[in-house]
């Protein structure tokens, strides 16, 4: 199992290191090709100047001036030169180790004047390029080390903030550094409040039933006490009264047995349920390459969990069944207008189909062709719940473009 610290420090460091090394590698390649191209051009230019001057001075047989020029040139440019006349007698050379092998004939107006060999590898230009290459890498490494130190300090600080935020989840009056964790905290707190409300409604309902049972029990007890103490004659009317009170208790017992807290309405934020529901069935929608866009605002509605689940289930899966692959379904909850809107990019419906649906269970021929399954009861369940909540249902649709189901809560 991965840890947050490992994610923020180890994993990020690995990623940054890989990116850095890749960047340095690419920069070195680019630097090498660029500088090598410039180096070759500059060497060619310098060699042409050296060749032309050597040929010019050799033509005038001004060897003393030529020697001074070559000495000056080798001193200024740190190059190795060996020049021989046509009899291959050395005129000038600083190639003390005799490493130069490739000689080029020196001509002036087609007249052979001698032979010259030059090595620019040890020149100042070559050294400058080498130092530039080393400097680029050293600077990059230093900047990278400094950047990694700053990143490490930053990640450690953020890791501390993140851990503190996680420790403060579901703690009242907490201050958070990350808005996403704060939102999670708010959702969890709201869910907890909703669970408490639901439990309160359930307990209130139990107390109400218990109170309803207490009254007939009290009547029966009074009758039985009076009969036992012979303060009351056992007449038919007395037994009929006891029977009536017993029936009342028996009618209340099923409410205990069949009572399901999910059917009890309470004020809850429908956006929290929608968010959980959409994420729960995310993989089902991905199987059809359908994406779900959630635009959720807090909206408090007095509704039971069971009705809310039925409502969202029928609206969302109706949109799923009649949507084209690679399309989008949008679920919007608007606090100001108190509206729940589910819109899709499916096959859409004609106005005639909408009228028939509002009358009762109905499926058009296009719907049956697109999706063989279904009974047309889905929207009828939605209508029943909307009616029960005293809300308003509106259906807007365009054939070939999709449908939009809107519920206006009171």
Protein model, in words:
It is a single chain. With 410 residues, the chain is of the alpha+beta class. It has three domains: 4-125, 2-Layer Sandwich (Beta-Lactamase); 193-263, Helix Hairpins, CATH 1.10.287; 266-408, Histidine kinase-like ATPase, C-terminal domain (Heat Shock Protein 90, 2-Layer Sandwich), CATH 3.30.565. Helices cover 60% and strands 16% of the residues. It has eleven helices and eleven strands. The protein has helices spanning 4-59, 63-77, 124-167, 179-228, 236-258, 270-280, 282-286, 305-321, 351-359, 365-370, 378-388; strands spanning 80-85, 90-93, 104-108, 111-119, 266-269, 291-296, 300-303, 328-334, 339-343, 392-398, 402-408. Strands 6-8-9-11-10 form a five-stranded mixed beta sheet. The chain has a four-stranded antiparallel beta sheet with strand order 2-1-4-3. Strand 10 (392-398) and strand 11 (402-408) form a beta hairpin. Helix 8 (305-321) runs antiparallel to helix 11. It starts with a helix and ends with a strand. The mean pLDDT is 79.
